[in-house]
Specification:
Distance between the termini: 56 Å
Radius of gyration: 24 Å
Largest sheet: 7 strands, antiparallel
Structural class: mainly beta
Number of helices: 1
Shape: elongated
Order of helices and strands: HEEEEEEEEEEEE
Strand content: over 45%
Helix content: 10-25%
Number of strands: 12
Length: about 210
């Protein structure tokens, strides 16, 4: 076989590969687009309680693109050392979120991202822990992260799929999200803090959906 025939065959193979891959790619794109329901998705707080969230100090917001939702805390901070009271060293907030989705669809939590701000003196430590579960289900997921001073700045942790299993089809259940912040002053006599307050910047807690048809 001549060099020219090799070249022609190579070009033909490339053209065929491109012509075959284009429909496949288009089908994959269509499947991805179909993975988001067309109807409305709403998220609302059914209950919020705990030492870190007095009534009215926690809200939830659904993403406009139906990719998930976020929790915003307005007064969630734990402190230790200095003038902080002993009861301030541990704070928690449990949010019950009711998520309503279109008929024929259900979802899981594919990723959770937690953000906040830490001001830890040298010798101090802090912990952020979150546990979440469907109301009435024995299955739950949790994540935690520890921090060591000196530290003064924003922190960001995440938990990637599988985070929480799919909600049963045709059942409307409350998603409970219980977050704890804890600070230990350790060898430091200065005040240290761990917070998730919206007044301190972009510190919303983010939850991303993974959709599937029932």
């Amino acid at each position: 076989m001549t060099k020219g025939r090799y070249t022609a065959l190579a070009v033909l193979s490339t053209v065929l590969a491109l012509s075959l891959s284009t429909p496949a790619r288009a089908a994959a794109d269509d499947a991805l687009a179909a993975a988001v329901p067309e109807g409305a998705v709403t998220v609302e707080v059914i209950a919020a309680n705990g030492s870190g969230c007095a009534p009215g100090t926690a809200s939830v917001f659904a993403n406009g693109d139906k990719s998930g939702f976020r929790i915003r805390y307005y007064d969630f901070v734990a402190e230790a050392g200095g003038t902080a009271a002993p009861t301030d060293r541990r704070k928690n907030c449990q949010v019950g979120a009711l998520i309503t989705v279109p008929a024929g669809w259900t979802f899981a939590i594919a990723k959770a991202e937690y953000r906040g701000r830490a001001r830890l003196a040298s010798g101090a430590t802090a912990l952020q822990r979150t546990n979440y579960y469907w109301q009435g289900s024995s299955h739950n997921s949790s994540t935690e992260e520890t921090f060591t001073g000196p530290l003064n700045g924003y922190w960001d942790t995440s938990d990637v799929a599988p985070v929480l299993i799919y909600s049963p089809c045709s059942e409307q259940r409350v998603l409970n999200i219980n977050t704890e912040l804890r600070v230990d002053s350790g060898s430091s006599t200065s005040k240290s803090s761990m917070s998730m307050r919206s007044s301190e910047g972009d510190v919303d807690t983010l939850f991303n959906f993974s959709w599937t048809r029932c």
